[in-house]
Design goal:
With 329 residues, this protein is an alpha+beta fold. The protein has ten helices and 14 strands. Helix 6 runs parallel beside helix 7.
Length: 329
């Protein structure tokens, strides 16, 4: 085995970027304006990327250039010096959660070597099944819900009625919810939080054991960045919800029958991931303003080593605002 000297952990730099987005957007907590909250995060995140020594290309961003003036798909970020990388961002995952003052909104960034990230193209939705590392070899996306949950429960050493399954609260999941209840497992239903709940499903310390259902394809790629580092398994399949989406995917030659894993969504384990809580919740505390500054909590992951860090930071306006181009206070 060839031993390597410690390398720079890019995820630590990414943490500064998600902190900036969280601090800026948290001012919009509960103010009913999701566009303003998201824009504040985008502005802070884009500005923070300028000091990062990478040649980055946004693969998962805010959308197409004509609808997203910054952090759009295909945009270049970073100083232009350093490694060429793919970048996935969600400045505010859960804009509605932020706008209405609900828990579990987070800011996330993932980075992987250039060409490693799956490009969703015209695909907006995918079917997903996410489980922790102990159950990664016992699940099958095509298996009945009952079978998957029974195998997961056995792998985790739990009874079925111990399991907590996260499902997005959408009409499309009506049958899935009934199947889960019939088995006897418990359910967390939330309106948003695709990435947040994927992280919880692979975290052995969280109350969520499984994530099931159809959610965003971009969010799936972002989640895969973290799962490559934490461990666990994501099984997914492109699952268009509208005829327009389906037609666009067919024209792009995208196969909706293939089952993908986190390794297909991010093909290199030299991945970096950072997330910072915005509104707080059971997984990650949100931004706490103290008058003289603020406190944040972040999750930082390096895929190559599997190192997962939790970073608590105290930000002091008096010092920070002397040098920061982002106006947090």
């Amino acid at each position: 085995m060839v031993m390597e000297a410690p390398e720079r952990n890019l995820a630590m730099d990414l943490c500064r970027i998600t902190e900036a987005a969280a601090l800026a957007s948290a001012r919009w907590l509960g103010r009913g304006n999701k566009e303003a909250g998201d824009q504040a995060a985008v502005d802070a995140m884009r500005l923070s990327f300028n000091s990062l020594n990478i040649k980055g290309k946004i693969v998962i961003g805010e959308g197409e250039k004509d609808k997203a003036p910054m952090l759009f798909n295909g945009e270049t970020v970073g100083s232009g010096q350093g490694p060429e990388v793919d970048v996935a961002v969600d400045p505010v995952e859960g804009t509605n959660l932020l706008a209405f003052g609900r828990p579990n909104a987070i800011s996330v960034v993932g980075v992987a070597p250039a060409g490693a990230m799956f490009d969703p193209g015209p695909s907006f939705y995918m079917q997903k099944l996410v489980v922790p590392v102990m159950a990664k070899d016992v699940v099958d996306l095509d298996a009945p819900t009952e079978i998957n949950l029974r195998y997961v429960a056995k792998a985790l050493g739990k009874d079925l009625d111990d399991l907590v399954v996260f499902v997005l609260d959408r009409p499309r999941h009506k049958d899935l919810i009934e199947e889960i209840r019939k088995v006897g497992a418990r359910i967390q239903l939330h309106s948003d939080g695709d990435v947040n709940r994927s992280l919880m499903a692979v975290d052995p310390c969280s109350p969520v054991d499984v994530m099931m259902g159809t959610g965003g394809t971009p969010e799936g790629v972002i989640s895969a960045c973290a799962i490559r580092g934490i461990g666990g398994r994501m099984l997914c399949r492109l699952n268009p919800q509208l005829e327009k989406e389906k037609k666009a995917m067919e024209e792009a030659g995208m196969d909706t029958s293939v089952i993908l894993t986190e390794r297909d969504l991010v093909k290199n384990n030299n991945v970096f991931f950072a997330a910072t809580g915005i509104t707080g919740g059971e997984f990650m505390p949100g931004v706490k303003f103290t008058g003289a500054g603020a406190e944040t909590r972040s999750l930082v992951i390096r895929g190559k080593t599997g190192t997962v860090r939790t970073i608590e930071a105290r930000h002091q306006w008096k010092k920070l605002m002397r040098i920061s181009a982002v106006k947090y206070d």
